[in-house]
Amino acid sequence: MNKKILTIRIILWLLLAVITGWFIYLKIAPSGRISYRSEAGRPGYFIGKLAPAERVETNGGQAIIKGDPAYFYLRAPRRFNQAKLTVTYKNLSGLPVVDAGLLIDKAAWRIDLRPLENKTIDQLALVWDMINDSGTILLQRQKKYGSLKEFINNLPERGQIAVYNYNLNSKYLLPNYQKQDRENFLNYPLRGEYQFYTYVKAEPLDYKFSLTDLSSNSGAKPLDLSVWRDDQAIYRRHFDKIEQRGEINLSLADLPEGVYKISVAAADDIVTDKIVYRQSKMSFINKIRLADGNNSNLRLWSDSSDLNVQTVNPAKLQTVSAGGNQVKIAKTYYQYNLKPGGKGQLITLEKDDLLLSGNGVFSFSQDGLIDFAVKKVDANLDINQAGINYVIANYSIPQEENSPPAPAGWKAAQAEFNLAGAYSEQTGIFGAKKYVFLISIPGLRAGEQANGRLELKEIKVDLAGASLWEKLRKFFSGL
Amino acid sequence: MKIFLNLLFHELFYALTGAILLFAGLEFLAPGIISAYLNLNYLLLIWLIDGIIIAW
Predict the structure, then answer these.
(1) Rounded-to-integer distance, Cα A243 and Cα B41, Å
(2) Phi-psi bin for A475: left (phi > 0), alpha (psi -120 to 50), beta?
(3) List of residues 6+ apart from A51 with CB closer than 8 A
(4) Does any CB of chain B come closer than 8 Å to the CB of residue A261?
(5) DSSP letters of A461-473?
């Protein structure tokens, strides 16, 4: 009997040890790789529920996205470097573009967007000549170029080119650009983060930012200033805090001619009261958030074909006009849409304290608008009407989902993200790291489009990082 | 047979007690390490049922 008890005891405790070891193995992921898969409508611990409820419905194991965007959490058991997101979906929105994104900066709400689907490009790939060079594809209406390199080195007239998830702007030179020898002033206050393009030719890059931190009583907020060329940061500076009325000077000399992007990453508590600059071009990228400066009758120019406007201040309800069209902002916290009906249109605002966003750039002077003349392959582009003969994109065409029992019409698309530097939350020292992902269908508005939706069947995430062996080697080599 | 079952339930009770303490401790140190895969409430329920059987 004692022998039997001992045997049972050994078996039970051995089983407990094995089970505990298995949990620890799953936590550590010693190989450096782990995958999670979830039905979109039945979230689990690692891949969370799609939200918000106003834009997402569940139907059994499927999730239905009715408005843009939808968010979900990913819990990673430990630190990983890369995440490959695979989404199985059916795009019934009537809109051509579906993107996936990863939240990089919560304060500035900066998101790393990657393409999942672009129906326009998928259809062109069936009839146009296609060159695929390590994930960058070149589509030609009539084959003229034998390689991607040949195309880049001998660009055709820019009006014939459209891009998707590809930066062609660095090759862009303004033939008639004249530098100015005077100071320009932007006196409209801007709230939070913003990015803008500027142009430099035989002159220093010269900007002075006057800032106010409205949160100075509840804890100062940091600010990051960076300058980019060719998607490479050539200058970065971090400020732990801004004095109540602070000034930041940016001056870079001996820069090669071309387009530069300046990024100010800051929380909404930081207001840029004034910008003094010497460059003649300044075009804010995709959005501009005007703060309350008691300004009226503001004028901006934009090449956006689709504008969104919103205010959170009930005292700033107003009518916004653009290119002959108007929209009345009658309530706060609601995004209104306006189509200016052409490029380089004048936008007039009765009051400030407004968020303007669009698929192009914004400038406070018509001359300050940088018109890249390279169109983007989005929902508003008619390839034939716009005279596009070449499309260049960093994009992989989604695969039809053929594995049974999936019905026809489902596609699987992938997007890869770099997790290093992404925003994450962690409970405790050894807790899981929680990342925020999103699925975006630009133009899909909940309640506005009858039956317009994106159905999601499955979300899969493959995580990759340093293996246990690599971590141990690094630890001991550091001793 | 009855004695054997009694001993079995006793040993199971000890093992389940150990499991609950171990898993709760791991869960405290690294939230989600156990609860991502196993609902600890079910483990507690089995432990309770086992305890009741032993007491009976």
Answers:
(1) 52
(2) alpha
(3) A70, A71, A72
(4) no
(5) EEEE---HHHHHH
Residues of chain B with Cβ-Cβ distance to A20 below 8 Å are 22-23, 26
Q: Are the beta carbons of B33 and A77 separated by less than 8 Å? A: yes
A10 lies within 8 A of chain B by CB: no
Helices (H) and strands (E) in chain B — how many of each? Answer: 2, 0
Element housing A475 (H / E): helix A468-477
The shortest CB-CB distance from B18 to any of A16, A27, A432 is to A16
Q: Which residue has the higher pLDDT, A459 or A451?
A: A459
Q: How many angstroms separate the CA atoms of A369 and A49, rounded?
A: 41
- Reported in sequence order, the residue ranges of A189-291 that DSSP labels E, i.e. its strands, are 190-191, 194-200, 205-213, 223-229, 232-239, 245-252, 258-266, 270-277, 283-289
Say if strands A136-140 and A390-394 run parallel, antiparallel, or are unpaired.
Answer: antiparallel
Q: Which residue has the tokens 């409508």?
A: A41
DSSP code at position A143: -
Burial of A331 (0-12, 13-18, 19+ CB in 10 A): exposed
> Please, are residues A93 and A453 in contact by the beta-carbon 8 Å criterion?
yes
Q: Does domain A33-116+398-469 have CATH number 2.60.120.260?
A: yes
- What pLDDT, in 10s, does the model give residues A349-381? 999 999 999 888 899 998 888 866 578 898 778
Element (H, E) at A61: none
User: What is the pLDDT, as a whole number, of residue B2?
Assistant: 81
pLDDT of residue A479: 67
Contact (Cβ atoms closer than 8 angstroms) between residue A196 and residue A261:
yes
Contact A23 B37 (CB under 8 A): yes
Q: Which residues of B touch A46 (CB under 8 A)?
A: 36
Q: Where are the domains of chain A?
A: 2-29, 33-116+398-469
A431/B31 Cβ within 8 A:
yes
What is the spatial distance between Cα A217 and Cα A88, in angstroms, rounded to a whole number? Answer: 47
